[in-house]
Amino acid sequence: MALRVEALESLLVEKGYVDPAALDTIITTYERDVGPRNGAHVVALSWVDPEYRQRLLTDATAAIAELGYGGRQGEHMVALENTPDEHHLVVCTLCSCYPWPVLGLPPTWYKSAPYRSRAVLDPRGVLADFGVTLPEGTRITVHDSTAEVRYLVVPMRPPGTDGWDVEALAALVTRDSMIGTGVLAAP
Fold it and tell me: By percentage, how much of the chain surpasses pLDDT 90?
C-alpha cells in the first residue's frame, strides 16, 4: 500500500497536479496541529469543568460536538477515563479505525500489524515499548476501535497543574496519551 501511495504521489507531482510542499504541510497539520490539538482541548476542558467531564463520559460524541469537533471518523465516540486503578489502551485490530476529528491522522505504528496484535496479547509489553511502566496493580483495559465506535482516552491530569487554564493544560496533552500509549508527567 505504501508503495502504491508513493507511486501515485510521484505521478501527481510529476504531472504538476500536486505540490509536494503543500502535501507535507497538510499532513503535518493533521498529524500535529488540528487533530491532536482538538483532542487536547477536549481533555483539558474535562479536567477543569466537572459538568463537561460528565457529559464527555456519558456521551462523548455530543460533548465533543459541543466544541465544534466532529465529522467523518468521529461520529460515534466513547471517552475512557484513566485512573490510578485502570489504564485504557486503544487499538484497531482489523485495520486502523481512528478518531480523526480529535486525534488527526493515525500514526504509522497504530496501523502496523505488530502493534495491532501485541496490544491485545501483551498490552504491558506494548506500553513498555512506548516507555510506559504502570504499577502492577493497575489494570490495563484494551479497547478495539471499529467503524462503529472510536475511542478517546482521557489521561490523568498531571500533578502540579491546579489553577491552570484550559489552554495551558491542553499544551501538556499528547496524542499518545489520548490513545493510551503514553502518560503525562508533571510539568
Answer: 66
